[in-house]
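Human:
If only I could read backbone structure tokens as easily as an amino acid sequence. I am handing you a single protein, as its sequence and its fold in token form. I hope you can help me see how the letters and the tokens relate. Thank you; the sequence and its tokens follow:
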Amino acid sequence: MNNFEKNLERLEELTQKIQSRDISLEEALASFEEGIKLAKGMEKEIDRIEGKIEILKNQPAAGADTTPELDLFGDADLTSGTSGKPKKGTRQ
């Protein structure tokens, strides 16, 4: 994060430099180019951090039971593998 903060400070310096009236066109262009590179690098860093946050948010809580509670075949007959006679009016 320290590197990100340094890049942000540098980007602010470049912005002030470009906005000054006593800068040549060449200097302004060079500062602008450096600022664009910094901004793109910072954007990648933000994307990486956001990805980490999403991963952390989607992890189960510590100590949480992660056993699925879905029981699709709880009342199935173990011998035939069916759940018994079809109910009247239903297709199976």
Q: What stands out?
A: Helices lie at 2-19, 25-58. Residues 25-58 form the longest helix (34 residues).
